[in-house]
Amino acid sequence: MTTPVLDHWVDGKAWPGESTRTAPVFDPALGTPQREVRLASTADVGAAVAAAAAALPQWRDSSIATRSRFLLTFRELLNARRDELAQILTAEHGKVLSDAAGEIARGLEVVEFALAMPQLAKGDYSQNVSTGVDVYTVREPVGVVGIISPFNFPAMVPLWFFPLAIAAGNTVVLKPSEKDPSAANWLAELAVEAGLPPGVLNVVHGDKEAVDALLTHPDVAAISFVGSTPIARYVYATAAAAGKRVQALGGAKNHMLVLPDADLDLAADAAVNAGFGSAGERCMAVSVLLAVDSIADELVAKIAERMAGLRTGDGRRGCDMGPLITREHRDKVAGYLDVATADGAEIVVDGRTATFDGAAEGFWLGPTLIDKVSTASAVYRDEIFGPVLSVVRVAGFEPGVDLINASPYGNGVAIFTNDGGAAREFQRQVSVGMIGINVPIPVPVAYHSFGGHKASMFGDAKAYGANGFAFFTQEKAITSRWLDPSHGGINLGFPQNS
Ligand code: NAD
């Protein structure tokens, strides 16, 4: 049997490109490759950018009504066929179907927000800034936008960007993760079905070669990137040096501080949810629990008790948690448990000894809880990106905040407390982009914007919301003076009156 190969999607159709390089795409719950995906050459990326550039003039000039109708139809189709997409996400990423459904719901929200485009695109008008002189601003598309996305949200992260980019009149080349690439083609095909002209949304698959080609292509005006911190930093520097505007969202190590007055049952539920949802492969996952000494034993016991009820297995079988993305990643994450032991921490729940409802070859690791983790340990310092929750015991509010602010990352953070004053101080003092107060995963809704501080984000334009739309548009300010017939054609503007 020949292995199916996933093509690129260029100019409204599947396209193999010229490169003969491919990579395997696994079903992580089965542990076996299901298909190959093409890895684009520089020339292949060039062809996709050429298609996007050719589609740009007509799409840029299309009416607001045309673009709104596309978004509305796309939203309806996506909503109607969300189960189909969820199956694709589970088959290639491994997350359980309910997590896949949640990912799609968050993506749909951005499509719905993009329908606010007529309002967002409106300019300003100041009449008579001087006699007979008006100043107004308009927002125009930037051109061809390159989007580079990570494996952990193969539908949601592309949906953070392309609906807004397209709504604003840009055309797009999307380079999804090569580990779970099929969702991107599915979305691009759906967009054509919803009436999007060929060439407006293109997908190229690939690795570093494809990314580098996008970052340096002279016809790409803007880059939206989401991925790990080292690559985000590289993407930001490379694309900025090539003269592009860049938003590059990076990795995370999110803390959750639990104060003694918190509702410990609520905090334990939240920790389990935020630590192990999507097997911890979320940039907003909680990976460090800062427990104040006086309640730490009780909180750890409550979390361990809840973890005993979690079922890990094939995401299609109604489990709570699926496998990790690759065998290498699974082994790397499991390796941190050895580090924890060597560094003197206490493994309370060991995911290596869990049982799994799935194929023996799946990339399994059960939920893991490690207590008394030292802040000097790599278990604390590194972004592990798996189902591993580390407990660091702290003396109180201030040492907790100090640790959060000492972290090189600043994506998400949460505090659990019933003290409004403490919560307010927390919000003011932490240098983190997204803060939850008794909310473990504070992902902003689509009409606010998503992004972190420090090494969690490079660039100053957050994803989606008003910031996201602004990133995909550039402003023109026009100062105009017309001759005034009531004064015999003599203009009374700036020179005399300003
Ligand atoms: P990654 O950095 O390995 O890959 C991201 C993208 O970059 C992929 O498309 C990949 O093909 C490409 N890439 C990988 N290596 C490259 C290289 N050397 N040069 C150029 N391009 C390269 O990230 P990942 O493992 O796919 O995703 C997980 C990471 O993404 C985690 O660190 C997670 O925290 C982060 N993430 C962040 C956010 C956020 O909003 N801040 C959201 C989701 C994921």
UniProtKB/TrEMBL annotation:
Keyword NAD found: yes
Keyword hit for Cell cycle: no
GO molecular function: oxidoreductase activity
EC number: 1.2.1.27
Highest rank taxon of the organism: Bacteria
InterPro entries (alphabetical): Ald_DH/histidinol_DH, Ald_DH_C, Ald_DH_CS_CYS, Ald_DH_N, Aldehyde_DH_dom, MeMal-semiAld_DH
Residue ranges of domain Aldehyde dehydrogenase in the record: 18-478
One Pfam match: Aldedh
UniProt keyword terms in alphabetical order: NAD, Oxidoreductase
Protein name according to UniProt: methylmalonate-semialdehyde dehydrogenase (CoA acylating)
Organism: Nocardia rhizosphaerae
